[in-house]
Amino acid sequence: MKVFVTGATGFIGSSIVDELLRRSHVVVGFARSETSADNLRAKGAQIHRGSIDDPASVLAALASVDGAIHTAFNHDFSTYMQNCADDGALLDAMAETLGGTGKPLIATSSTAVVPPGQIATEDQAASPAIPRGASERFLRFSETGVRTGVIRLPPSVHGKGDTAFVPAAIAAARRTGVSTYVGDGANRWPAVHRNDAARLFCDALERGEPDQRFNAVQDEGVAFRAIAEAIGRGLEAPVRSIPVDEAENQFGWLGRFVMADVLASSRLTRERLGWKPVENDLLADLELSSYFDPSVKALST
């Protein structure tokens, strides 16, 4: 297949590109800059220039490909609500453009679109009250002849090159000199390795049925206290509990996430696609020195 990939040089998108090429697909990588284009050419991918800020540049690529994987997202958390709405609108436009073709359109969402207090499963629809759920609205276009599918990613997609939530917690611990968790730290995060997630995106592209959600989950729930303890070992820093009212001072923008208890299951994903994670789990990856390289820049607002 000839596959268009947005976010093709990102943390997850770059692994998807590698996996698609390994499976002998032709990749058309969406590149915002010439540097990104050069990186994709070096892998053997074709290039389509544009930006998600210019939806027309995304839609222009769809006529000449056999399917698309959409991983690009604006990760500026100061405009998170608008970013989610924009992503939903872009996916609607992509699905409308592909109407009647039978081509696959695989997009990215979050396991946290299911309200907390339950184990998130693939058959649960996204809550309309949760902003990221806008990225799943396009699933309805399966009725117009698009093979729609969503990969729900957990809070931690980990591996070498990670700059997201766990690195942000590491940066907070380095800044304050202490690795912390809130309360008893029993709240849990699901997690998956980036390479296992990439394989799932490709499996869904190749074999997924229309209008399906897939949970890219290896660890159903890792206690945040265990994450904080692993960070403490990696930084040789003390580990302690803090009360809820100190979370924002300790973690900044991450404070809203560190208290989340968002269990998720991938049982149906494994049954439907035969997907099986094979990489390190989160706590094993946190034993790697690369996570504690001070030159790594984590996401910020």
From TrEMBL:
Residues in NAD-dependent epimerase/dehydratase domain copies: 3-215
GO molecular function: aldehyde dehydrogenase (NAD+) activity
Signal sequence segment: none
CC annotations in GO: cytoplasm
Pfam families per the UniProt record, alphabetical: Epimerase
Protein name from the UniProt record: 3-beta hydroxysteroid dehydrogenase
Source organism of the structure: Acetobacter nitrogenifigens DSM 23921 = NBRC 105050
